[in-house]
Amino acid sequence: MQLSGAQALIKSLEQQGVETIFGLPGGAILPVYDPLIDSTIRHILVRHEQGAGHMAEGYALATGRPGVAMVTSGPGATNIVTPIGNAHMDSTPLVVVTGQVASAAIGTDAFQECDITGITMGITKHNFLVKSAQEIPRAVAAAFHLATTGRPGPVLIDVPKDITQSMMDWWYPSTVEEYDLPGYRPEVALDEQAVERAIALINASERPVLYVGGGTLKSRASKELLAFAERTKMPVVTTLMARGAFPDSHEQHLGMPGMHGMYSAVTAIQKCDLLISLGARFDDRVTGKIPAFAPHAKVIHVDIDRAEFNKVRFADVAVQSNVAPVLRAWDGASATPHNLDVWWKEIRSWQEQYPLVYDEPATDGPLRPQHVIEAIGAKAEPGTIVSAGVGQHQMWASQFWKFEEPGTWINSGGAGTMGFGVPAAIGAKVGRPDRTVWCIDGDGCFQMTAQELVTARAEGIPIKVAILNNAYLGMVRQWQEMFYDERYSEVYLSADLPDYVKWAEAMGCVGLRATNLAEMREVIDVANSINDVPVVIDFRTDSSEKVFPMVAAGASNDDIQVHPLQQKGSR
Amino acid sequence: MTPPEPYLGITDHTPVRLHILSVLVENKAGVLARIAGLFARRGFNIYSLAVAPAESNARFSRVTIVVDAESAPLEQIVGQLDKLVNVVAITDISPKDALERELLLATIKTDVDNRTSLLDIIASAGAAIVDVDAKSVTVMLAATPGNCDGLEKALEGFSDVELHRTGRVALPRLGKTAHAY
């Protein structure tokens, strides 16, 4: 069967089971958009290519399937660089197709030419510049294989326009060998000796902590984690990337560790004698000052990527594997720490002394952002998916939302990409139309990518956006207050400019505003009653509110600052 | 901790803190850029680099990279390198077990009348004259990196020298094996 390269590209994506592409056409990718008309694949037409990338990420994080985005060459391609970088940092499986100028024009500074494979070399797991139409099926199959196996990540396929316009004999690789990836070996045999040495450390431990990272979610090991944790009675902490991997309602869950982590989670790590890292990478936002991190702990490091071992923290035992097989092996061998009653008694005392707190909200406003999140959560049905941008609102969402299952927390971790929330929520809703999707956003983040609400309205994707509008770039403001003598530099945004309600309405969404407690309760109920169009709520929150607990950048986790309410008297 | 001294000395083999990585890669466009980019963005130092098609197989190339294991732990360098999809195999030859050779080419401008000392240097270094005219001599030396260092230093006395070196390639000495990752 003779197909054009463009037809082969679409057919290859269909072969991979792709249901949705997020994209925006342009000159170099034009040929591919023609066969798309006849395809079963749904295309979501975004308003900016960055939106396409973040939507694909949101889709991937909510479904566990790779997100797919397609854009044109030049500025289309550079506009999607931020999502690619974001997906690279968070190991999110993504396949990005970019158009490229015709092969003969490459290297001539042609119109809308850019070296996107060169630009994304350091922020993709791999990328391809396709050299012939015949190679398209292999490139697509290999891209999905690379994106979804081993440590997942973004893969980019750059296709010159003449390649999509030329003809090929249709074929599709049926085995991994045909992908032609001689250097790629994602699966490694479980190192039984390392497993045994880890068991010895577990059996000898008296104060263990399970440090659960995003890799636990990526490798779908939540069930095994629950079984292992309940059998061993070990305390569990879940990083920002792992929220939802272990139920927040579980009594063994201490919450999130790190810079804005729970006091008990941070302190348990500091005092533990064995830290079991499951798909976590000792990010600086978790460790604080590295030499002072978990100073008494031996470390068992489980990761599929061996380059993570000893990168930041020495691992007494390193096990290169997905998380689940290791937990099953430990369970099979009945690895059990000593009696943990004394350890739990200590942990419970920290939990009782330093729970999450915030100031009582005044009836007539301004609202407390933490209270708004709790109020939304109280009215949300189980399984609701929450996305966030980056900043204070993101930390509060992670702290105050109760995550009970995988795929319900969609956020930008490693890269810290402001503006992630709205498009990621749209992507999540496309992937999980059965779920309610809330985006907890900041006013600064919202302004970066809000135009995608036009996409959401046009495509019938009814997400709900809660803007915690404190009129500031809040996290920067917090740092300037605490570490720059309250010298506020370029952080004021205004609560009224833009008018978020009018803006929402202009984009075809329902726009609501809440300035006091009564309005807050009312607008949440209204938002929950609307299921056909996107809803945007402008919650007017207190500008002076800060995220606590906090470990200052570069400080030891021992020097964690708790909320001012807890500083008085108790410390 | 004081920063490490840059390696400038003359030795017969690579200093121990350097490692010789023999990396088999797919012979595809951009592979060298991927390796160089990885070293640059992770802050790993490349001491020398040599690339050529691999033995009897046009599909692969062999890249010999001498890396400074003080710029980053060797485990990190190898681990990150191995993640490049185009990297097929990595072996590490310990400098004491390595047979290393390097090619040096140098053109020295010198009149016919003033060549005595140059000819002495060439002879004692074991180098060969590969081109000659009335104003210049081009010499070649295929030898240990240390011997190449020695010749390079000896030629410093001449005012006009154009000197190129290939970077080293290495194999394990007979009876020794490279460590495969």
Layout of helices and strands:
The complex is a heterodimer of chains A (571) and B (181).
Chain A (H helix, E strand, L loop, with lengths): L1 E3 H11 L4 E5 L5 H7 L5 E4 L3 H15 L3 E5 L3 H5 L1 H9 L4 E7 L15 H4 L6 E4 L6 H13 L5 E7 H5 L1 E3 L22 H13 L3 E5 L1 H5 L3 H11 L3 E3 L14 E3 L7 H9 L2 E5 L5 H4 L10 E6 L13 E4 L2 H10 L8 H13 L15 H11 L5 E4 L3 H9 L8 E2 L10 H11 L5 E6 H7 L2 H8 L4 E6 L4 H10 L16 H7 L3 E5 L2 H13 L5 E6 L23 H4 L4
Helix pairs in contact in A: 1-2, 1-7, 3-5, 3-18, 11-14, 12-15, 16-17, 16-23
Chain B lengths: L17 E9 L4 H12 L2 E9 L6 E9 L5 H10 L3 E7 L4 E12 L6 H10 L2 E5 L3 E8 L1 H10 L6 E5 L3 E4 L6 E2 L1
Antiparallel strand pairs in B: 1-3, 1-4, 2-3, 4-10, 5-7, 5-8, 5-9, 6-7
Rg for CA atoms of chain A = 24 Å
Provide the CATH topology of the largest domain in chain A: Rossmann fold
Amount of helix of chain A? 25-40%
- The rounded distance between the terminal residues' Cα atoms of chain B is 30 Å
| Number of DSSP strand runs of chain B | 10
What is the CATH architecture annotation of the largest domain in chain A? 3-Layer(aba) Sandwich
* Largest interface pair: A-B, 19 and 23 residues
Structural class of chain B: alpha+beta
Strand order of the largest sheet of chain A: 3-2-4-5-7-6
Number of domains of chain A: 3
Mean pLDDT of chain A: 97
Oligomer: heterodimer
Q: Termini distance of chain A?
A: 76 Å
Q: Tally the helices of chain B: what do you get?
A: 4
* Low-pLDDT runs of chain B: 3-10
Quick recap:
In chain A, 37% of the residues lie in helices and 16% in strands. Chain A has 571 residues and is α/β, with parallel strands linked by helices. The model of chain B is unreliable at 3-10 (pLDDT under 50).
